[in-house]
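Model the whole thing, not chain by chain.
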Amino acid sequence: MRHKLRFYFGNELHELDSCAPTLTLLDWLRLEMAKTGTKEGCAEGDCGACTIVVGRLEAGRLTYRALNACILFLPTLDGCQILSVEHLKAGRTLHPVQQALVDFHGSQCGFCTPGIVMSLFALWLNQSNPDIGRIEDVLAGNLCRCTGYRPIIDAAMSLRANPDRDLDPWLRDHADMQSKLLALADDETLSLQSAEGRFLSPATLPDLARLVLQEPQAILVAGATDVGLWVTKGMQQPNVVIALNRVEALTQIHASAQETSFGAMVPLTKLRDVMGAMHPQIDELLRRFGSEQVRNSGTIGGNIANGSPIGDLPPVLIAMNARVVLQRGETERSLPLEAFFLDYKKQDRQQGEFVTRIIVPGLAPQSLFHVSKITKRMDEDISAVCGAFWLELRDGRVLAARLAFGGMAAVPKRAAKAEAALVGEIWSHAAAQAAAHALDLDFSPLDDWRASAAYRRQVAANLLKRLAFETLQPEIQSRTIALGVAHA
Ligand SMILES: Cc1cc2nc3c(=O)[nH]c(=O)nc-3n(C[C@H](O)[C@H](O)[C@H](O)COP(=O)(O)OP(=O)(O)OC[C@H]3O[C@@H](n4cnc5c(N)ncnc54)[C@H](O)[C@@H]3O)c2cc1C
Ligand code: FES
Ligand code: FES
């Protein structure tokens, strides 16, 4: 057991004997370190004003990611390097990213600017020549009310293939920092006690399993993109927190010819790399899941375990016939993902149990697959309805169907009646229409501020018709492609 939290702030090693389990990185920076360059806008992961860059070891390599400091708990950064906007300027000289925003007039009131600088800085560290689509993805989680995005995107474009990149001290000293972080890595459980509660961070799966059994009241924290809001918006103060992010076994991805197994702690960014390659519509869904900052923190396991009826991954994974694996002590069990969701925010998870991995079968060549996320905004918005459909066809006839929806019931759920209407039929517009009618028997949708029940019913039916158009008349364009700003 180790009782010291250790991390680098820039190049400075910090060792803390005590830390509140849910102290946010933003509060630590602003209130304890008086580093006020990082701003608080929304305090719920939406606006990006608090964006910082965190370097951590991923498979032994130092990797930098942009994250939202407002919903990130400081003690989960054990063994990491934190870079805030204050680390960029060298003496009186601005960092090239900052200088580009000045040169292209990318800042007016300036409140969003540090966050935008840090998002572009993370991109600068990771990629020397990003295209416009990548730049827009990276900026989708940074809201600016003043400038409009054109000057900001122009500034980002001007940084491409910049010869000064090689001189950047954070890149030049990369190997040195990687060695320092490797020297901090250990298998000890980190245990911190403070007046506000206890924070436990095991480094191995057996230690995690033991702690989850021992501490039945503990809140498990993966990427904290849901749990963070319980604290900043729900004003909850969990007394005991168990963080999962140091358990490397939970970050593994194993692929075979038949299926891919994703550890519960696989971040959405990595999930997109692998699942996005399975189908372009899954890639599009994951591109529109939160923002770059949210995808860098949020995990597949968190999206499933929180049991939200409007989570984006459950419909896709249910349509693909995924299984969830749970562990309690040394015992594992697995069940079809659709059986995991029992009722609103109630899952088939016993005390002491946690999600270890999700097993996703491949998409057979003779199957049709479709997923649509319907939101009010294109980027960084939660679904009103998410529909994911898988059909197995033989000689044009539907042999089997899995139609899964989010936003249509208290849990992510299959449309059993609509599936029955399809099976045995020739796949056609008429069959899709019949299935769309049957949806009324399957669902009494949610009626809330995000969308009315009538709207959800109509959209769900339309998505089945869209599936027919996409597969029977692919020449008809049924999707709006996110358009990049034209650049010379
Ligand atoms: C700005 C913003 C935008 C978002 N956009 C989207 C979106 O577009 N689509 C969407 O679906 N969601 C969205 N979310 C919600 C959130 O990002 C996702 O649900 C994410 O996948 C949660 O993962 P996490 O690792 O952050 O979970 P956490 O917040 O760490 O945990 C979530 C819940 O799961 C539990 N938990 C986590 N891991 C495990 C485990 N292995 N075993 C058992 N229990 C576990 C936790 O105790 C908690 O109850 C958004 C959130 C924010 C802040
Ligand atoms: S303050 Fe808005 S994302 Fe953190
Ligand atoms: S410059 Fe004012 S919010 Fe972006």
